[in-house]
Design brief:
Length: 241
């Protein structure tokens, strides 16, 4: 599975670097807007881990708010894209979230993981490591595929199954790319999280019309606003140690 994820996201790295910020509405105008509402405006005193940094959009936002940021990703090509974006302002390197993390106990005030954890089969070891490296009172905020969306979109026969799915993304730079990920029911997401953390908020994002006039956004809103207003696509969890 790791090899499949690396292969896919190495191929997708140029698309994330060049196009996702403006042309992928599900990222730029939906998930990111909901996630950033949960972040403090002033992050000057915070150490932050961007766990699954991709091409570095979140890394850059945290730096702009004054945080000391470490960014990690399984894909070497994504790591290089993130480095091109933020230069030496953040520590950026390849790292596997399913393995013991190379950080001391109680290193971070905040761990943010955007649309990454559904590529991991067993969350328990990862969340144990997140708990270990978070400072007391530290927060973890993550987004994943909404289990309802996966169940409905892929027409699965058993909502309660924990299973591997695949779809093909066709992007400008990469062409067709096979992407594999895991789906799991809501109770599993919440129970595994609450084994290590206190859950503060569950967010099922809806698109915000305040962003519809941004460049490139109007066509996406026309296609997706009604659907995402009534059918959640992602799920966000905010929890604390």
């Amino acid at each position: 599975m790791k090899e499949k994820v690396v292969t896919a996201y190495d191929k997708l790295a140029k698309d994330y670097e060049k196009h996702v910020d403006t042309e992928s509405g599900h990222n730029a105008y939906y998930e990111r807007q909901a996630m950033m509402k949960l972040m403090p405006n002033d992050m000057n005193s915070l150490t932050v881990l961007d766990a699954g940094c991709a091409a570095g959009w979140y890394t850059e936002q945290f730096l702009k708010r004054g945080a000391q940021v470490t960014a990690i990703d399984l894909s070497p090509a994504m790591v290089e894209a993130c480095k091109r974006r933020v230069g030496y302002e953040a520590e950026v390197f390849a790292c596997d979230l399913t393995e013991p993390l190379p950080f001391k106990n109680e290193t971070f005030n905040l761990i943010v993981s955007s649309l990454t954890l559904h590529y991991i089969d067993d969350w328990a070891p990862t969340f144990q490591e997140f708990h270990r490296i978070l400072k007391p009172g530290g927060q973890v905020i993550f987004s994943v595929h909404h289990p309802f969306m996966d169940f409905k979109h892929f027409e699965r026969p058993d909502y309660f199954a924990h299973e591997l799915l695949m779809e093909t993304w066709n992007k400008k730079e990469s062409g067709p790319v096979e992407v594999t990920f895991y789906r799991r029911p809501l109770q599993e997401i919440l129970n595994v999280t609450s084994d290590q953390f206190i859950i503060d908020q569950i967010i099922e994002p809806q698109p915000d019309l305040a962003f519809k006039d941004k460049p490139h956004a109007m066509d996406w809103y026309k296609r997706w606003y009604d659907r995402l207003s009534t059918n959640p696509h992602f799920l966000i969890v905010k929890a604390r140690k």
